[in-house]
């Protein structure tokens, strides 16, 4: 163990922040750290919208599931998969750009995730807390319109950043034995491992300091697969130029 690994393994989502603002230029430093993330073929297909306007924050909050910390966090960012710069750059070389390939969607989305996680780790390294806002994808079209996102740009998720005003427990992760496979994919022991993990998660949910509930990991997965989750996303992505050809 070293301080970096300890930081990475102690991550918690923070949903309550103090009113303290970030020091001048710290946000720019965090985004610069995000730019240091790995990027496929150096495409750098990520743009970040810093949303400071209070009315826009309120609108996004309503569209993203009424999560109040979107309005109250000192900083709120929207991370966007952005292939516009890349298409424009390619066409300036004189080629006729091939648009809408599935790989373009995958590359830009992966780039955003890597970029944002660098921002998250950098923020936590200086005592800040963060929470990702996947609810951005509940209503991506009006949020895109609000943020004036052009074709070939779509909002992947948001992130609240600020100084923590709570100290939640670290949520247990899946046992390493079911995540780290040796040489080939072997899941024969997963059922027993997951059953034990479900008990650990049940204990965590029942005894955590905030919002105790009777649940476990498997129960938490059920909503994702018991119906169509955000079925609007495919048509929305196509409308933004990510045709998944």
Automatic annotation (TrEMBL):
GO terms for molecular function: oxidoreductase activity. Keywords: Flavoprotein, FMN, NADP, Oxidoreductase. The keyword Flavoprotein applies. Residues 9-163 form the Nitroreductase domain. SUPFAM superfamilies: FMN-dependent nitroreductase-like. Belongs to the flavin oxidoreductase frp family. This is Oxygen-insensitive NADPH nitroreductase.
């Amino acid at each position: 163990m070293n301080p970096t690994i300890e930081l990475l393994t102690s991550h918690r989502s923070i949903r309550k922040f103090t009113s303290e603002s970030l020091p001048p230029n710290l946000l720019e430093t965090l985004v610069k750290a995000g730019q240091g993330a790995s990027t496929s073929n150096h495409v750098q297909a990520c743009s970040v919208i810093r949303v400071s306007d209070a009315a826009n924050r309120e609108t996004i909050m309503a569209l993203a599931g009424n999560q109040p910390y979107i309005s109250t966090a000192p900083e709120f960012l929207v991370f966007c998969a952005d292939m516009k710069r890349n298409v424009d750059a390619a066409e300036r070389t004189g080629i006729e750009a091939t648009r809408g390939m599935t790989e373009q969607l995958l590359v830009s989305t992966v780039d955003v995730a890597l970029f944002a996680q660098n921002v998250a780790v950098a923020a936590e390294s200086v005592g800040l807390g963060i929470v990702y806002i996947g609810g951005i994808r509940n209503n991506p079209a009006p949020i895109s319109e609000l943020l004036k996102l052009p074709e070939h740009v779509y909002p992947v998720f948001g992130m609240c950043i600020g100084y923590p005003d709570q100290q939640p427990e670290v949520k247990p992760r899946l046992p390493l034995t079911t995540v780290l496979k040796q040489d080939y994919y072997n899941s024969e022991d997963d059922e027993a491992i997951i059953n034990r993990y479900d008990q650990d998660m049940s204990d965590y949910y029942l005894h955590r300091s905030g919002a105790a509930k009777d649940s476990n990991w498997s129960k938490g997965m059920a909503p994702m697969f018991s119906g169509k989750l955000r079925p609007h996303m495919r048509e929305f992505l196509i409308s933004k130029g990510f045709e998944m050809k």
